[in-house]
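Let's study a protein:

___
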Amino acid sequence: MNKSFYLSDVKATFGRFLPLANKLGYKDRFLIAAGALSSLLFASVSSFLIWGSYGSIPLLVAPMGATSILIFALPSSPLAQPWSVCFGNFISASIGVGCATLLGHHPFVASLAVGLSILVMFATSSLHPPGGAVSLLAVLGGTQIEHLEWYFVLGVVVLQSTCLVIIAAGFHHLRKVNYPQSARLSENLHRTGDPQISARLGVTSADLDVILAKHGKLLDISRTDLQTLITNTEIQVHRRRHGVIRCSQIMSRYVVTVKFETRLEECWQLLRTHKVKTLPVIDDQRKVIGTISLIDFLKNAGLDVYHDFDLRLRQLLENAHRLTGSRYEVAGHIMNTSVETKVDDSDILELVALFTDLGLHSVPILNSSGELQGVITQTDLIATLYRMQIDKPLDT
């Protein structure tokens, strides 16, 4: 009995040294490697174009390799944000050069430079692990680095760090990855003091503040992504307990639609007759190319200006085309082309943020080919969630 206990304890101890499972797909791995490669090439070429005639200036320094891994593999990490990359490396290089100039090029001086760099990076919220290597290089980099002195800071470290960040920003934009991470909290749709509706339920920012304060450790993940993970986990728990309801199960299938060439007068009448707030605009293949709503009429009629508001509104209600003039005649001229849609097999819980935080009134539902299949409104979702609550089995 004791023997098996000790064996399991040994296995648990050594198991901590085994690598964690990597959930990243092979495509993403190759893309990250390609991004790091391209950014380092861009940094070295930029250094050559600027300093090529000066053979003593290195076109690429070793810490940039570590920086490239951080900003491409961990773009959500606070340690990989542009401020941390550029300013953290700048601080570290400056402290390293300063220590070497005052105290000489010695391993003890290099250790001191790294320690000071960490303290200053913490103080300026610019902690960047490769900065430690930058400090070491500034002190122990040999005659080539010693000769550069303060040129090493701006001419090498800051230049190459900036090049890496530029390529990373473009690379992640193409992959639709949020980089740089925004430190600004999302605003309430109505621009009032209340938090967004979704933030009033479940885990709130105040909850995160309390837990992070108790945790007392650095997290290699942005606050935004942490809250997103928690919210998605809550949704997954809800699915496990109550099952999944697909958009196809609750959507309205008989949708009033218009086309690009539909006259504005007809669009206005459809909105009034069917008492809907939004009309999907589709093409001949039933692909959604936009939406048209009352708000689009108001904006394009110039009703966002208070002067003569009542007169303009009266004219709009009497005859829409008199306000649109020759420039705006059909739906395609004033439609909103930025449309949020969902696929018919999506979980209805994915609609919550669209209706609450984005303030949408309806969401077009598409099939796997992108053809319009139906529409789900706020009313549809509220009724379904209410029904789910009623049908929930009582706790025993």
Q: What stands out?
A: The two ends are 39 Å apart (CA to CA). The beta strands are 258-259, 278-282, 288-293, 342-343, 362-366, 372-377. The chain is about 55% helix and 5% strand. Residues 43 and 252 are 54 Å apart (CA to CA).
